Structure formats: structure tokens, C-alpha cells
Amino acid sequence: MKTTVNDVEIAYRDEGTGLPFIFLHAFPMNQRMWDEQLEALKPHCRVITLDLRGFGESQSPNSSYSLEDMASDVRALMKHLSIDRAVIAGLSMGGYIAMAFYRNYPDAVRALVLSDTRTVSDTDEGRSRRFLSAQKAAQEGPAAIARDMVPVLLGPTSLKERPDVVERVTRIAESNPSRGIAAAQRAMAGRPDSTSLMSEARIPVLLIRGSEDALSPPSEMEAMQKNIPAATLKIIDRAGHLSNLEQPDLFNAALLEFVTALN
User: Fold this and answer.
1) Shortest CA distance to 33 belongs to which of 205, 150, 183?
2) Domains in the chain: ranges and CATH
3) What gap in Å lies between CA 141 and CA 143, rounded to an integer?
4) CA-atom Rg of the chain in angstroms
5) Residue 52, helix vs strand vs coil
6) Rounded Cα distance, 130 and 189, in Å
7) CA 213 – CA 43 distance, rounded (Å)
8) Would you state the pLDDT for residue 188?
9) Is the pLDDT of residue 86 over 90?
10) pLDDT tens track for 195-211
């Protein structure tokens, strides 16, 4: 399905009934990364996935935009779907957008799931890498970004033992428009630090981390757990940064346990 929010056409899926659960995808992926979560959760709650602006089948605006703009798209989609409050789940970039959403629309958040992400902003070096990646996407296309990203997005176990996952992640990454990939890198480079924001959160927060995730170090996720008052941390064994794709059964079990507690 598609609808236009904030003058941007957004592709989304909406299945199941009950507690609304909205999934925000990682970079440089799209909503297809959530296929297993959609199937597992839709018998228990209302599941919404979407292609964030610039990804998948959603529109890529010509102008630059921020993570707050992407969060605004999610809020507008909720209004379109007559949803007042939802669980917002984000992985990596999706986690940054989930925190931006909570910053701007706290009353619309029932709970948060933050997976393989971080509350701190980029270092100067990290921002420089993002700008170089944005330039590369614009000049060489999504295949070049997929070649760079897949080896660090997936853990050693998946890279060695799961060629199907490697192929799937590569295929999804390569399907996204260059313009959207570049714009998202610039948006992530400009994101604020969310550590103080999350320290004041009084909603349930589930943190999930792949045990082999090289992009979200254990020290950062553990610091998030200590900093967020109502946070619990689940470790997904034999998974890297895309823990939901690499070990979907374990990831889904953590989500279902969380949903049961919320209900």
C-alpha cells in the first residue's frame, strides 16, 4: 500500500489487529528486512512496516532532510491509519529515528524497541565517513554501498554459514535509490545526542543486540541499559548488526515476550 504524507509518497504494510507495532528499518535496507517479524507478530498485534523516505518503494525527495523529518513521516502515517499510540521499533538507523520520534511525539509512544543502535551522536570521524559514503552513493550507486556495508552489517557466523542471508541483504541494499542512501547518510551525520532524552524515558524499552555486532559495541548497549530507567537488554547469539535477519527466531521470541508483557 502507499499513501502521501508530508508531500512524500510512502509505501507501507499494515496487518493484524490489536496493539500497533511499527517497525523502522536499518540503513541501507528497506521494510523487507522485517518480513519474518511481520509474520511472527501479526497474530498477536497490529504490525506496520514502511519504506522510509528515500528507500524501497517510497519517494526520494530532491531536497535534503533530517531524521526528524523521517520521524514526522511516521507520525503522519499513524494519523492516516488512525493510530494514536504505538510501540516504535527501530534497528540501527531505525533506532535513531525511533528516538527522534520519541523526542518529538512522546505521547504517541507506548514503548520502544531499540536494536543494534546507539544514543550517542557521531564523532567528527564518523560524520566524515558518512559524508564520504553519501558522495560514493551518488557517484557509484547502491551496489557500491552494498559492497562496503554487507561485510560489516553481518556477523562472522552469517558471513561464513548463511549465504542466503548475505544474498538477501545485498539484494535489499542494492534495490534502494542512490539519492535516498546519500540523503540518509547526511541525515544520520546531523543527528543529536539522545542520551539525556532516553535517561528521562518512563516507558518500557527493549534493547536488542547481536552478540557479533561490530557496529554497536557491547559497552554502548550496556551503557544504554544502565541509562534508561525501564530498559531490558536481550543478546541475540550468533548475530551481527542485522540481528533480526540473522537469527529471526531468537529475535522474534524477544519481541513476543515484550508484547506479552505490554498486553
Assistant:
1) 150
2) 2-120+193-262 (3.40.50.1820)
3) 6
4) 17
5) coil
6) 6
7) 30
8) 96
9) yes
10) 999 999 999 999 999 99
